[in-house]
């Protein structure tokens, strides 16, 4: 529903194509290393909404 409301096409990776999935895995690692590990050292999040706001801001800059 979120994807449809925001006019986003949902794509999946092909089975047996590690290069395609590797892109997603690398991005996930980047988010973990550059956002989450840093964010949790700087701040205690009282809510998921607060964390989401910071992640959204980070993604805009990324």
General description of the model:
- The protein has 62 residues and is an all-alpha fold.
- The protein is 69% helix and 0% strand.
- The longest helix has 25 residues, at 18-42.
- It has helices at 2-5, 18-42, 48-61.
- The model has no long low-confidence stretch (mean pLDDT 88).
List the helices and strands and how they pair.
Layout: H1 2-5, H2 18-42, H3 48-61
Estimate what percentage of residues fall within beta strands. Answer: under 5%
**What is the β-strand count?**
0
Helix content: 55-70%
N/C terminus separation? 25 Å
Instruction: Let me know the average pLDDT.
Output: 88
Largest sheet: none
Radius of gyration: 15 Å
Detail the poorly predicted runs.
none
Class based on secondary structure composition and strand pairing: mainly alpha
Provide the descriptors you would attach to this structure in a database record.
mainly alpha; 62 residues; 69% helix; 3 helices; flat
Brief sketch in words of this structure:
This protein is 69% helix and 0% strand.
């Amino acid at each position: 529903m979120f994807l449809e409301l925001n006019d986003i096409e949902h794509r999946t990776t092909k089975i047996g194509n590690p290069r395609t999935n590797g892109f997603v895995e690398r991005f996930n690692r980047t988010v973990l290393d550059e956002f989450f590990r840093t964010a949790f050292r700087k701040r205690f999040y009282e809510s998921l909404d607060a964390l989401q706001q910071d992640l959204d801001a980070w993604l805009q800059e990324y």
